[in-house]
Structure formats: structure tokens, C-alpha cells
Amino acid sequence: MMNDTKAAVVPVTQPFLPPLEEFMPWLEQIWKNRWVTNDGPLHHQLEQALCEHLGVEYISLFSNGTLALIAALQALDITGEVITTPFSFVATTHAIHWNGIKPVFADIDPVSLNLDPARIEAAITPATRAIMPVHVYGNPCDVEAIERIAQRHDLKVIYDAAHAFGVRFRERSILSFGDMSVLSFHGTKIFHTFEGGAIVCRDAQMKRRIDQLKNFGIQDEVTVIGHGINGKMNEVQAAFGLVQLQHVDATHAARARIDQHYRERLAGVKGLHLHRMLADSSANYAYFPVLVTPEFPLSRDELYAELRARQIAVRRYFYPLISAFPAYCDLASAVRENLPVAEQISQQVLCLPIFPMLEREVQDRIIDIVLATAVARAA
Ligand SMILES: *Cc1c(COP(=O)(O)O)cnc(C)c1O
Q1: pLDDT value for 1
Q2: Residue 188's domain is classified under what CATH number?
């Protein structure tokens, strides 16, 4: 129940919703087409629009990002073991498990917060078939080092790019690295279709295979190839994506302003480390993570509690680590000694609110709380 007397909670993120009027003509179009799902005209239109916007050639839309991750592993016939990061949203590892594959956790790099290539290489066994890294917070992985490792050991690379919509690395879409990249269009992501996702792949033949897999493996009326699933995006989702796409430049600019304001006001605060993108990549401002280090007067959890008590719904992305959950903690690679950097970062990270509709006044209130609690504690 809502409580009107309490100050409204400021969420860490809020889905961007374009004016409803813009959505209505698309709905009318669906009613006119009488085509509600299964590779409909709007689905097709969104695939083309996204290819252009993102600068990629082949994209297959899905009903959500998790099914896209699961299907990506299926499409490449991955078995055995897959090396992945414990510092991500739990869906990354779930997708591996749902394929009957054993996830193997490797530690992250303390600067990028993405899989450390040296630790990937150390985790390879004769059963390893693929690597599933995550571009955490939209910050590119060391894609070149990962490519070299994959070539050396004949491994596939599937990037969980759920955070990386629109990110470019050395003038190239980050989605064009590896064998495949998987996007999520969930409501919490910077481009969303309420629920949704996609696989970006390298060639038309693979796209055809993915499109069949997401439609039960149906090839034609009498032929089913492989163990397909229902991962189709429907026309209402696609319509919403087309509307949303017209706003991505404006929402990106709004996020950039918020990011900059945080950086201006929080720069130089002792013990607060502001996460930065790689030099060669463009930011999408999907998240605003800070590391609360021991030099800060409060621990991460104390700062979290202070903000929460004042209705600021900051989040500890990603804490606990995936490797700490009961479903995965018994894996040999899940032991803390194997993941010291991820362990430490997950104890220090705090994501501050960032979304296009966040007002400057509210943002200043958040920053004031951070600064004031630090001063009060230090005194
Ligand atoms: C959101 C997210 C997913 C899952 O996407 P859904 O569309 O919610 O299924 C997977 N991996 C990461 C890193 C995510 O942030």
C-alpha cells in the first residue's frame, strides 16, 4: 500500500515511458494487421531499426534476455564447462545451468570489474567449451585478450551484453565482438520493451538457426530441428521498442547530464571511488556505481542504510556474488579464495540512482546525504 504521508521512494532506476499517445498508432497498426506474434511486421521492423541504430548486421529478438542467453548457448551447441563471472546478475549463470552446462567462476579485474583474462585462462580445463563474460555496467570487457584466449584454446565467446546497449569500443559496436552478444530489454535497462531481449550474431545462417530455436526449433511445417524453445517477442513489445527507439538519444543525453553532475560533486571525496569507462569506449550511463573503500568514514552497508532510511533506494549491484547463492556455492570455483577481487568489490559497490526523469533537485538531495553522512561520521 502507498503511504501518502511518507516521502516518495527514489528508485535506483525507473523505466522510461514515452507519451502514451505515441504508442496508440502502433497498437492500431497491430489491430489492423491482425498479426500479434511470430515474426510479425513490427518485429521485423524493430530488428531492422536496431541493426541500424546499433551498427550490427544480424539481430534476433527474444521475449526476454534470459531466454536469449539460454538459446545462444544452444545455438552454438555448447556442452561441458563455461567460464563466467560471479560479478553479474544471477541470470548469466542460470542460463548456463539451464543448458546442463557446468559454470566455472573466474575472478574479475579490479579496474574494469569484468572477467580478468589471466584468470579466464587459468580456469580452462579439457572440458571448457566457451566463455561467457559480462560487460558489467556497460563497460567493455578486454575483448581483444578474450579473443586471443578463445582462439588459442578453440573456445566460443558469448557476451552477456545486457548492460551494454549502444556502447561502442574503438568505433565499433561492442556487440560485434565474440561469437554472439546477448541484450536484455527488461524495464530496468536503458532501452526496454517492458520485457525483451536479443541475440546479435555474425552471419545469416546463424541468425536463421537462432530464429528457429526461439520458435520451438520449427524449420517448416513438418520439420523440427534441435531442442527449440518459445522465446518469441510479440508485436506489442516490438511496437513499444519502436516508440522507445525514437527517444534513445534524448534519454542518453539526460543520463549523461546526471552522470556528469555526480562526478562533479563527488569527485575528490576521500574513499569514494567513481567507476570509469575504458578510455576507448563510449559510455551509455546505464548505472552509476561507486566503490565505498576503507578510506570512506562509513562502510558500504552503513552508507546503504543511511540512504535507504531517507527513501533513496540505492542498490548493491552485485551483492551477493552469484557464486555465493545456494544454487552455486558448492562449485569448486565458487570458493572465496578463488574470487578475492569479486568478493571485495561486491562488499564495496553501491549503485546510485540514475534514470532520465531523475530531477536535479532530487539528485542533489542524494549527493547531500552522501556528503553529510561522511562529514558527520568523520567529526
Ligand atoms: C537484466 C540482465 C539479464 C537478464 O535479462 P532479462 O531480460 O531480465 O531476462 C541477464 N544478465 C544481466 C547482466 C542483466 O543485467
Answers
A1: 44
A2: 3.40.640.10
